[in-house]
């Protein structure tokens, strides 16, 4: 799974991307070039808790992204953990993520 790493790439997606929120996960997505392979970023801010807590949130997000078929070719997607991400199962987060991908225009219904 190819990930977004540089600060400039993050800022590009933040400034121009479309946002969608759910209590379990937040998504920011930006359509890129057609030939471009899709990329994904997993974010768990420090305000959520210590490193162990944040890493668990990112593991749940990664598994949910895998189950939803991310990365989608031609799209850069950033997934943000919330406080409820930690207590949720990857399948619950995956269901929420699927709905958010449709809402943000990454996927058709």
TrEMBL record:
Coiled coil: none
Record EC number: 3.1.26.5
GO cellular component: ribonuclease P complex
Enzyme class: hydrolase
InterPro entries cross-referenced by the UniProt entry: Ribosomal_Su5_D2-typ_SF, Ribsml_uS5_D2-typ_fold_subgr, RNase_P
Gene3D superfamilies, per database record: 3.30.230.10
Keywords, comma-separated and alphabetical: Endonuclease, Hydrolase, Nuclease, RNA-binding, tRNA processing
GO molecular-function term, one example from the UniProt record: ribonuclease P activity
Domain of life (superkingdom): Bacteria
Transmembrane helix keyword on record: no
Protein name per Swiss-Prot or TrEMBL: Ribonuclease P protein component
Origin species: Olsenella porci
Gene responsible for this protein: rnpA
């Amino acid at each position: 799974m190819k990930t977004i790493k540089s600060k400039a790439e993050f800022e590009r997606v933040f400034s121009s991307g479309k946002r969608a929120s759910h209590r379990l996960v937040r998504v920011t997505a930006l359509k890129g070039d057609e030939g471009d392979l899709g990329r994904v970023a997993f974010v768990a801010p420090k305000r959520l808790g210590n490193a162990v807590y944040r890493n668990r949130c990112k593991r749940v997000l990664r598994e949910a992204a895998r189950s939803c078929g991310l990365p989608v070719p031609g799209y850069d997607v950033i997934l943000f953990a919330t406080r409820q991400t930690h207590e949720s199962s990857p399948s619950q987060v995956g269901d929420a993520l699927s709905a958010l991908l449709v809402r943000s225009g990454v996927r058709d219904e």
